[in-house]
């Protein structure tokens, strides 16, 4: 398959199941824009690149289909989906309803070691932004928001927001990079850590709203 070699690593990191490893790599490629909307990707071609059978690749791609990141092309393979402006607005509105209050709740329950771990992820995000490394930025950003929301104590909320967050990221990182906003968004993660450590839930929620709105701003400005 044309383009397959440029979107997946030659080897897979050793973690969890093979299906999850493939899904993580494909998700990063989709969100970083390395897999292009409209182009059809076949499981056998990707499997050859990974050096695995087509089964875990096909299973991983079906997982991403359930998350709305890709769609099945009958008898051909899969292709990356694109959000319409209306869909992006709807998802952003839902995130704005869920994430800021959850972040404020996290500030009430946070432990010093949790903030330290989160700050490490924030630094990774900032370094990736400085290097223009969208794949690393995206994975770090996903980890950061997931871990922050886990501190709210609502695991179901974490799962819901992760799915919404992934879908929004399809529209965000390239635009942020092109408009020079990637470092700004990256730096906000460190500020969130400072507010979290200070227990300032109100300020953290306010910054989270600004942070989420970047998705719309990079499209509308």
UniProtKB/TrEMBL annotation:
Domain of life of the source: Bacteria
Entry's Gene Ontology molecular function annotations: DNA binding; DNA-binding transcription factor activity
Keyword field contains Iron-sulfur: no
Alphabetized Pfam families for the sequence: FCD (PF07729), GntR (PF00392)
PROSITE patterns: HTH_GNTR
SUPFAM superfamilies: GntR ligand-binding domain-like, Winged helix' DNA-binding domain
Designated name of the protein: FCD domain-containing protein
PANTHER family on file: GNTR FAMILY REGULATORY PROTEIN, TRANSCRIPTIONAL REGULATOR, GNTR FAMILY
UniProt keywords, alphabetically: DNA-binding, Transcription, Transcription regulation
Ranges of residues in domain HTH gntR-type: 16-83
InterPro entries cross-referenced by the UniProt entry: GntR_C, TF_FadR/GntR_C, Tscrpt_reg_HTH_GntR, WH-like_DNA-bd_sf, WH_DNA-bd_sf
The keyword Transcription regulation appears for this protein: yes
Biological classification of the source: Bacteria, Bacillati, Actinomycetota, Actinomycetes, Jiangellales
């Amino acid at each position: 398959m044309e383009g397959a070699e440029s979107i997946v690593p030659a080897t897979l990191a050793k973690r969890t199941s093979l299906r999850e490893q493939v899904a993580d790599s494909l998700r990063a490629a989709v969100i970083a824009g390395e897999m292009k909307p409209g182009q059809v990707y076949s499981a056998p071609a990707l499997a050859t690149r990974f050096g695995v059978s087509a089964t875990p690749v096909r299973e991983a791609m079906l997982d991403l289909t359930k998350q709305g990141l890709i769609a099945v092309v009958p008898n051909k393979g899969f292709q990356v989906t694109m959000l319409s402006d209306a869909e992006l607005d709807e998802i952003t509105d839902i995130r704005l309803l869920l994430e800021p209050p959850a972040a404020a709740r996290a500030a009430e329950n946070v432990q010093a070691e949790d903030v330290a771990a989160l700050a490490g992820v924030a630094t990774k995000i900032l370094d990736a932004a400085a290097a223009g490394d969208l794949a690393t930025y995206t994975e770090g950003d996903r980890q950061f928001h997931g871990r922050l929301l886990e501190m709210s104590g609502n695991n179901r909320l974490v799962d819901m927001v992760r799915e919404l967050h992934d879908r929004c990221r399809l529209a965000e990182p390239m635009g942020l990079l092109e408009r020079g906003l990637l470092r700004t968004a990256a730096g906000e993660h460190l500020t969130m850590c400072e507010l979290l450590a200070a227990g300032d839930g109100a300020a953290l929620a306010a910054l989270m709203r600004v942070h989420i709105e970047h998705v719309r701003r990079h499209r509308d400005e």
